[in-house]
Amino acid sequence: MLETTTAPLLIALGSSLPKPDDSIARMITSGRGSLAFILGDEACRYRLLATSINWDRILIAYRDCTALGYAAFKHHRRGPFSPGVRPFVREFGRLRGALRYLLFVIAECREWYYGFYLYGLRVIKQARHQGVATSLLREIFEQARQSGHDRVELEVQVKNQRAQRLYTQQGFTKVRITPVNWLGRLLPFPAVMNMRRSLVSHP
Ligand SMILES: CC(C)(COP(=O)(O)OP(=O)(O)OC[C@H]1O[C@@H](n2cnc3c(N)ncnc32)[C@H](O)[C@@H]1OP(=O)(O)O)[C@@H](O)C(=O)NCCC(=O)NCCS
Question: Tens digit of pLDDT for each residue in 43-67?
Fold first, then answer.
């Protein structure tokens, strides 16, 4: 457990911080575990994605200069990562690297129809159950409003009930469960629940 402290929880866009350090990049690239069949394990995801983080799409929660969690988002076709093919080729070789890169691009395109999309949310284990994710979500709503959107959408794995409870508490409602679509028949995507939160009827 982190020591209980009176220091306030701060939330900032990564792009507004002087230079987000490497441990933050590691935390951010540790997400996207559902794409491990494309992006490999955590260490591999770090090597593939850490140099191409779009810091203006990452909110970081920190207290006493320690990063406790992040929320990544996507809108106007720009998400938290924009890797080129090169790190994939370096990691997996020319043919396999190009194929994995293509699959990654397809997986990213799958989200094209969302206006403002919550791409990832994670809080370090020692800081959970202190309202960090709730605060990150509030700031996500603010980011969505500022970029002209009237709702926030997300996908959460059907088996992730803890996250679903948090989203429901924060006003998200279930839209549908996406079982296995055409892409899921080809690739091992997990079943996900689509959730949505209006910023108009639910300010
Ligand atoms: C899901 C996750 C982001 C939640 O983060 P968190 O910071 O613990 O979330 P919060 O603290 O805001 O809320 C979680 C719980 O703590 C409670 N809580 C919030 N503030 C609290 C406080 N000050 N004191 C005690 N409890 C508190 C909430 O009511 C909620 O309770 P519940 O689980 O019984 O519903 C975190 O567990 C995580 O990173 N999981 C792994 C990654 C993941 O699943 N991400 C979601 C992908 S879609």
Answer: 999 999 999 999 999 999 999 989 9
